[in-house]
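Course assignment 3, question 2. Fill in each field.
Student: A.L.
Task: Predict the tertiary structure for the chain below.
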Amino acid sequence: MKKIGKLIAIQIFFLFVILFIYGPLSHAQEETKKHVLVLNSYHKGFLWTDNIVKGIESVLEQEKNNIELKIEYMDTKATGYKTEYKERLYDLYKYKYGNKKFDLIISTDDNAFDFLREYHKNLFFGVPIVFCGVNNLDAPNIINKDVFTGMIEHHSIRETINIALSLHPGTGQIVFVVDNTPSGVHMWKQIQGLFKYYEDIRMTRIDNSLSMEQIEDKVSKLSDNVIVYWGTFHRDKFGKFYSFKDGSLRVSKVSSRPLYGHSGQLLPYGIVGGKLLGGFYQGQIATEMAQRILRGEKVRDIPVLTEPQTRYMFNYEQMKRWGIKVSDLPEGSVVINQPYSFYEENRVLIWCIIATMIFQMLIIISLVMNIARRKKAEKDLNISEENFRKLLEYLPVATAILDKNKNTEYANRKYEETIGYNSKNTNVADWFLLAYPDDEYRKWALEKWNVDVKKALREGKEIEPSEYNITCKDGKVRVMEISGAFVADKMIAIFNDITERKQTEEALKESEEKLRNIIEHSTNVFYSHTPEHVITYMSPQVKEILGYEVSEVMIRWTELASDNPVNEKGFELTVKAIETGKPQPPYKLEFIHKSGKKVWIEVHEGPVVVDEKTIAIVGAFTDITERKQAEEELAKHHENLEGLVQERTVELEKRVAEVEQLNSAMVNLMDDLHVSNKNLEVTTHQLGNTNKELEAFAYSVSHDLRSPLRSIDGFSQILLEDYSGILDKQGRHYLQRVRAGTQNMGQLIDDILRLSRSGRHSMDKKTINMESIVREVCKSFANELKNRKVDFVVHECPPVFADSHLVKIMFTNLLSNALKFTGIRENAKIETGSMAEEGHTVFFIKDNGAGFDMQYADKLFIPFQRLHRAEKYEGSGIGLAIVQRIIHRHGGRIWAESKINVGTTFYFTLTV
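Answer field:
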């Protein structure tokens, strides 16, 4: 009994120990359980989303006891991702997960990615996020790299086309089935970007302008040199929806040629295969990245995957249908629906046995030959090293070899010539001080170089080329593209001088920018398209002419043309230009504007020919709708005119006889007219002499009048000064009126002479600065403005080609006029400036003076005409007549707008 009791006691002791150890462990396991949220953009049942989720679950299957997985579906495919719905999702997740802490979030597709970028801090602050299925190529640049990482969804379209062409040699055409949904438009742009790699292959497109039945009929009649690429197609022209399975399976069944694609979801449904993007594979890769984070790796150290995450995958049933062998496929390809094969199942084992046997035989042979080979190898190695040294020495690219201590062991001639620093035993740190004298730039360059070196070592690849601005020994800064590779414990650094190339690129970029500015600010629309009529460029002015955005026009160009037969003739000229490589004459097309109205355009285009082959068509077109309408109106008037002509013909015939009778009289009249012309020439000559005599007379009269006027004024002044005590008040008043009259008479004579001179002054035209002349004239009024508040505002005016002397006289009269009529204002304001009107520059002088009644505006520029009383506003009324004469001599015109007690604005042009 004691032994039994002792045994029980020992068992209880060990049980206690086990419980003591296991308790904390189980508690620790419970504590370390990870919580992961999967946020899907779309709904459960959507094949792509379901496959991603399955891929995630397949990786986490082995850790299902350590990870709690929560899956959410945003359902934006059916509901739409609008602001209101997005805000409601935010409220829902705030309510559901406000108190829940996740260790990591996996997001699928763009809407979930955008949602987390916007609400991450409010909903899941600090939680790392791994995204997949994102089409936004700019994603790596817009994320917080301490929180976000993942992969960009790239399709391997080019690789799929290449494998299809290799499996079907002799292919001359590829038909792409791509609809016009946003996804389809995005994919078609990607495909168009690949056309340049397949110049000998004709590329055509089937979009959703056809029904499914029409598409089936079209692919059933394809010739033997055609393959079909199934892109994305979910709705036909009637809006009927087709899933991945329904669409590709229907077309594959009737197609006379094989189908290829880019999505793994299509593989079971009629496509041969390709380098496919699969949701399952995307989910697996995203989860593997998530596991690295859950194990403690920093998000920033896991870069976003921008390379396509695709695999070569093929359907054996379709391969058999089109006579494709498994041996024709790329190595490592996945083949589904392949029948069981003992060899394929045990291929590794069989080949291992064979290899082992062969290996044993080879060991015996190799042991015999080893000594001889080693001796020969040593000799060859020495020769190879010598050749390698010579090759490096004469390479046209600067090259250096660094040892494991980062000292320069060797540098070739080009290195010494280009960079110039003594290379032997120079340490990298010392070299950086010489090559990058600027502290900030050196810090950046050193950090970037270390990152690139670490990446190359980690991935086992070469150091990728990067650009650096190196200060060479001669003081010149050169742009170097530096790359490298690791050989054993050494590093080979290659310095490719791209200074001239960068300068050329900058010049080319500047030239392209100037050309683009010219094109995009032209009233014409510029465009280019391939010989297959695929639009590759369209300038933005197309929206002003046709009402559509550039993206709409590039996709639907031919649909915008009306059914007018003239369009067919125009398009035939384009085809002829492509076939012959020669420019064709301009032609007209009729298009339908987005508003529904008809628009006529005139097209000028020509082919771009390289090696006697047309590679593109470039052209421009302009809107001629108004001109076309005018031509049509003219044609109508022409028809009416023909009828009128017929009506008048009878009447004209009646009058012909009368005209013939008048002819003889006309001959006599012409003789008389000839005599009259002779007399007119004599009269014109006499008139010229008379004008000169009148001009001389005017000066003589003005001179002769001045003398008695000065006498009258002088003697009147003497009488007023010396005999004022004798004269009574009325006598003095009469003498003052005599003086005022003589002075007014003198002013009139001066004004007549000024008016005469304005017409006689010879024109000396040159480019003048209007603003400078205005400011100079304003300064000349300084004495008159001593006791007044006048605000002169001189706006910017363009230079003009005119006579500066006459323009100065013109501004003097106009500004003097403005000063006179703003005398009633305590704060006068006078503005001068210009404005553009119907292709002409209109200058103006505006004041806030007394103004005038516009019904008398026609008398404004008549000499000696006054619109105000002389006792209130002095002047003879000749100034504006002089202004008008100067402006007319410059080929311009002048007019005024005014309101009484508001002010007056004079407008004028100088068309020389």
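Instructor remarks: The mean pLDDT is 80. The chain is about 50% helix and 20% strand.
Grade: pending
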